[in-house]
Amino acid sequence: MHFASDNAGPVAPEIFRALEAANEGHAVAYGADAATQALEKKMQALFEAPDARMFLVASGTATNVLALATLTRPWETIYCHAQSHISVSECNAPEFYTAGAKLTLVEGPSGKIDPAALDAALAATSTDQLPDTRKGPVSLTQVTDLGAVYSIDEIRAVTSVAAARGCACHMDGARFANALVALGCSPADMTWRAGIDALSFGGTKNGLMGAEAVLFFDPSKAYDFEHRRRRGAHLLSKQRFLAAQYEAYLSGDLWLELAAKANRAGALLAEAVRSIGGAQLLHPADANMLFVEWPAEVDTRLRKAGAVFYGQGAAENGRCRARLVTNWATRDADIQRFREVACG
Ligand SMILES: Cc1ncc(COP(=O)(O)O)c(C=O)c1O
Fold first, then answer.
1. CA distance 131 to 125
2. For ligand 1, what atom is nearest to the CA of residue 175?
3. Ligand 1 mean position to 7 CA, how many Å?
4. Which of 11, 151, 195, 271 is least surrounded by CB atoms within 10 angstroms?
């Protein structure tokens, strides 16, 4: 009963086989190898964006902060949701990598930026006083940090507000595949066609072993990004092993199959939560991440039985909040046992 994080799941066996196969002979380092070059072409085809540029790094935080640093000047501010990973969980790395740009937090339901609140925040950012902070990019998270999935129209509503004020848009797609499967749309529809300029295209939470990609739909950003990646100590020498993982991930739709398994487990778990007396889901469980509130005794029973999950703050009035996350390897039997234990 391991529902702590999709990062806690195993690496998919297909990915291990691809790593083994990539371990043949020599390949030039730092991304100049044939596998990385071929992967960029594959990504361009997948995203229907022949000019897009792709870069590989080893962590989701690196994708976010390097992409954002490329889009942001130090005297600008990045607009993001108050609950976003870049604001809450990256130890101010966005501020650090942008050499001091700040974050402007915007509210909205279930981790989604409210377009009207964004417009108000943008309008409140001065455009005429030299000493004032300037507008920078907007960053939204898909799947959101609270487990919901933006519809295409909801993404457009945010990006069109940004575009009207001349701001670029970044998507933190740490769970990109989970969102794509939930919406059943194409990668292009969920990104550049919906107004996204730069994407953090996660893989590690969905079966890869520490491989993450950044895509710029505007290739003129590539030069800047490459220098920032090296300067920021995120240019890995043995990139063929990152490329081999994504190559296997995107072949035969493995990535979508893995995400579909994680989302299906998420839906089953949500159903189990609904059957627990006194439990409630705090946000729409659109993909593989659930936020729940339940009686403290349910929490205790589950933990005693060995269930692993993160709590969200201290118990209050006999009730606890928790986050539950599924992944491609979550077993139905574990969800069944979770239901039995939780229901007492
Ligand atoms: C939405 C989101 N973005 C980015 C990250 C960062 O990923 P990493 O821990 O690989 O740096 C996470 C990880 O939990 C995440 O949930």
1. 12
2. 1
3. 9
4. 271
What pLDDT score was predicted for residue 131?
A: 84
Name all residues whose Cβ lies below 6 A of ligand 1.
59-61, 64, 85, 141, 145, 172, 174, 204
To test the pocket of ligand 1, the residue of 85, 96, 142, 289 to mutate (highest count of ligand atoms within 8 Å of its CB) is 85
pLDDT at 198: 98
Per-residue model confidence (pLDDT) at position 128: 72
CA distance 231 to 246: 24
Per-residue pLDDT, averaged over 156-185, amounts to 98
Which protein residue's CA is at the shortest distance from atom 8 of ligand 1? 60
CB distance 229 to 57 below 8 Å = yes
Q: What is the mean pLDDT of residues 157-162?
A: 98
Asked whether 102 and 95 are in contact (CB, 8 A), the reply is: yes
Long-range contacts of 162-167 (CB under 8 A, 24+ apart): 162/79, 162/118, 162/122, 162/137, 162/138, 162/195, 163/195, 165/119, 165/122, 165/123, 165/135, 166/135, 167/79, 167/122, 167/135, 167/136, 167/137, 167/138
Mean pLDDT of the residues in the chain: 97
- Which atom of ligand 1 is closest in space to residue 145's alpha carbon? 1
* Cα–ligand 1 centroid distance for 316 (angstroms): 28
Task: Tell me how far the alpha carbon of residue 231 lies from the centroid of ligand 1, in angstroms.
Answer: 21
